[in-house]
Amino acid sequence: MIRRVIAIDGAAGSGKSTLARGLARALGVPYINTGLMYRGLTAAAIRRGVDQEDAGGLVSVLEDLRFSISGEQPPELKVEGYAEDELKSGSVETGVSTVARHPVVRERMRVLQRGLGMAGAVMEGRDIATVVFPDASVKLFLEADPAARTQRRARERAGADPDEVAEALRRRDARDARTNPLEAAPDAIVIDTGALDAAAALAEALRIVDAARFEDDA
User: Fold this and answer.
1) What is residue 216's DSSP assignment?
2) How many whole angstroms separate alpha carbon 36 and alpha carbon 21?
3) How far apart are CA 185 and CA 10, in angstroms?
4) Domain range annotation of the chain
5) CATH number of the domain at 5-213, please?
6) The predicted structure's pLDDT at residue 161
7) Residue 86 parent element (H or E)
8) At 206, which helix (H) or strand (E)?
9) Do residues 138 and 188 lie in contact, with contact meaning Cβ atoms separated by under 8 Å?
């Protein structure tokens, strides 16, 4: 039985990670950022000199990667052997969309993601609501206008130039669209986070979750 899987998707800068982490903490389940798995693979490929267009080579690299859930309030996905700074480096940011667009890589990742989420989790990622856990207990899709997304991302990266942040988001959107169109699952509930701060977005998500019927609560 799959327990309490909550899927969260949305554009970069829409507040997915902040909401997902806060929701996981409130519900007492792990927070799994599946994008971090692709970042881990990208970082590993860079370390090993594997071409990001080489799908077979990337799958071989992926077989050697180890993902775990650790920590408290909430427990989170970790890529073993990789520090956060490396996973968020410019070279990884630039290459991750290329790595993620290979169908064979995505299929292998989905198997790993299902295994990580089976015991219950808040999972953030593009395929979660449609492919990995199409029967997720709750599906949330976050949207915000470009100005709000730019402002949020600029705050996260203190000192960043807003124009550069806006351009980076535009390029990220274009790369992501080539991999997997940014669309809400048909049964997802859309939350516009543009006018909401983190606390208000979390309160709205908790209201939605509280109204849902979970299999393990029946």
Assistant:
1) G
2) 13
3) 11
4) 5-213
5) 3.40.50.300
6) 76
7) helix 84-87
8) helix 198-211
9) no
